[in-house]
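SEVERITY: medium
COMPONENT: batch folding queue
REPORTER: lab tech (J.R.)

DESCRIPTION
The queue accepted two submissions in a row. Attaching both inputs and their returned structure tokens so the on-call engineer can compare them side by side.

ATTACHMENT 1
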Amino acid sequence: MLEIRFHGHSTVQLSSEGHSIIIDPFITGNGQATTKLADIQVSYILLTHGHQDHILDAVELAKQNEATIVTTHELATYLGWQGVQTIGMNLGGSLELPFGKVKMTQAFHSSGVILDDQKQIVYMGMPGGFIIEMGGKTVYHAGDTGLFGDMKMLGELHKIDLAFLPIGDLFTMGPEDASLAAQWVRADYVVPIHYNTFPPIVQDGDAFVAGLAKKDIQGKALKPGEELRLP
């Protein structure tokens, strides 16, 4: 059994057999979030890239839970300097952890921390996504990305039970490209992410899912705080 809880934006929590992990925690800066950061209990935090709307709560959450952050080498090093335990990895690499296995996939986006007071941007390595094996299921979190042809390869290499795909457009794929991505990764179930958090990325998640249904792809537009279970 794999339990999934969507916290809004791209923040997804996965739980199974006493283990719980979270991907791209963005709670305190997300007006749509229904959960308080203090109520989230996890042992691992996975970060796809270094933008604030994906890492904002990572350090505090790691300290609160004595959790380990797993992300790209550059970002892991940067966050490790802030007093948390990290594991750095890179695209194409995989990692065995107590809850299962994590493989980092490519994503077409950017990654950096903006230091407004210093007027500097610190490069944080390549962005990525994750293939996660947990609770007998395989989950693909695409991170922030545009459409790319190797998504077909991911669908060929992995039997993906659930895919989280961005649909917000402007900074990531929009609904049309995400629909193609859903077909290419061959996931049994698709959940849209990275939309409606800010005015520039407003999209109709239910319409996206209805479009998938016409292609015989199951999915659901989860609301912040809503849960999904995969038996």
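ATTACHMENT 2
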Amino acid sequence: MTRSLSRTDNLIHQFDTVLRTLVPHAAAPSRPSPATPEIHDEPLSDAERRHAAGLMRINHTGEVCAQALYQGQGCTAKLPEVRDQMEQAAQEEIDHLAWCDTRLQELHDRPSLLNPLFYAASFSLGATAGAVGDRISLGFVAATEEQVGHHLEAHLVKLPPGDQRSRAVLRQMAIDEAHHAQLALEAGGARFPAPVKLGMKLMSKVMTTSVYRL
């Protein structure tokens, strides 16, 4: 028999998720990194290394936001199957978080100092969307994942030509994010109108601009 979790158990689980998300090197992936030992970078100049690190820091913070978003939505989602879907997607986002963290270490850099701030903001957005209704919550997931996919495609172009390991990570992340968006829509997520998506794009611009160096 499966024991149902008490309120205390849930609080401990939520706190553990926060720690694994915000503490550097704490996230444990369930899948190996796409940047396998067989993939090697070409020599990178110091400027190229810093640029690649800046892009990977943005992607790392994006995964921090995704974790907070799914956690907030999971707390307020009405239907059990929606909560289960949020948890499954969050596990794959943990993989992305760990892969980006490892890549930052390889580039001799660090995650953003602003991660706690963006985590709190994203959790609030997720909880609010979940409280409004599962259709809106799932639609928010789909719109967010579509936007993340656009960022990843842009970063694949912006990466230094010799940075093959970051490129391998971003390619797999793009595949996963597209799958998450598709699942959210198939589960009944609302398709957000263009003005709403534009507002989300402007908000993400604040994150990407500030996190690139901080």
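NOTES FROM REPORTER
The chain has a mean pLDDT of 80.
No errors were logged for either attachment.
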